[in-house]
Amino acid sequence: MAPNDTNVTVDSIESPEPKGSEEPDYSRRGQWLRAAVLGASDGLVSTSSLMMGIGAVKGELKAMVLTGFAGLVAGACSMAIGEFVSVCSQLDVEVAQRKREQRIEGGGEVDGDGLPSPVQAAVASSLAFAVGAGVPLLAAGFISSHKVRLGVVAAAASVALVVFGCVGAALGRAPVGRSAVRVLVGGWMAMAATYGLVRLFGSTRL
């Protein structure tokens, strides 16, 4: 065989894989990204809204902090339980599908690689919620002035919402600006609605 033929053969064997095969699986990453971003955003918005709502009728620092802390604990537990049940249902469906495929292919044990973990999803969602809920708590925990405290909670929540929206969009390869604006406006609406409604009902002395 001629030298040129040998070089061509070796090069063709040792040629690297196409760059496209090294791209990360954004669809699989998106599942964890969704849980993390939703958990953090939910913790931030719900806790900030609770603190703004109680701040509409009570000016005491202790009342706002205790309300926010109760929201953090309750929300983190709710996220963990909800995500655990959801992923367990998804796991049952995927295992059943793999069993059907194994029977068609002639038996064998079901491969557990790539299956979702309910415990891992529950812990991740709970921690993400706690991180988001901790932002308004830390922002308001050391401010004695009632009006200043409300402004700081709203400002800290707004900054965190923009950050969460940008991070989620960047990791998911989505438009950053649109995602940040969407998350920010949604958070503002939730806080304004909670503050306004609690203020309204508080003024009626129900």
TrEMBL record:
A Pfam entry, by short name: VIT1
Stretches that traverse the bilayer: 63-81, 121-143, 150-171, 183-202
Lipid bilayer topology: Multi-pass membrane protein
Main location: membrane
Top-level lineage group: Eukaryota
Catalytic activity as recorded in UniProt: Fe(2+)(in) = Fe(2+)(out)
Keyword annotations of the record: Ion transport, Iron, Iron transport, Membrane, Transmembrane, Transmembrane helix, Transport, Vacuole
Compartments where located: Vacuole membrane
Biased composition (Polar residues): 1-12
Stretches for region Disordered: 1-27
GO molecular function, one term: iron ion transmembrane transporter activity
Biased composition (Basic and acidic residues): 16-27
BP-aspect Gene Ontology terms: intracellular manganese ion homeostasis
InterPro entries cross-referenced by the UniProt entry: Ccc1_fam
GO CC entries: vacuolar membrane
Protein's job: Vacuolar Fe(2+) uptake transporter.
PANTHER family: FE(2+)/MN(2+) TRANSPORTER PCL1 (PTHR31851)
Family to which the UniProt record says this protein belongs: Belongs to the CCC1 family.
Protein name, UniProt field: Vacuolar iron transporter
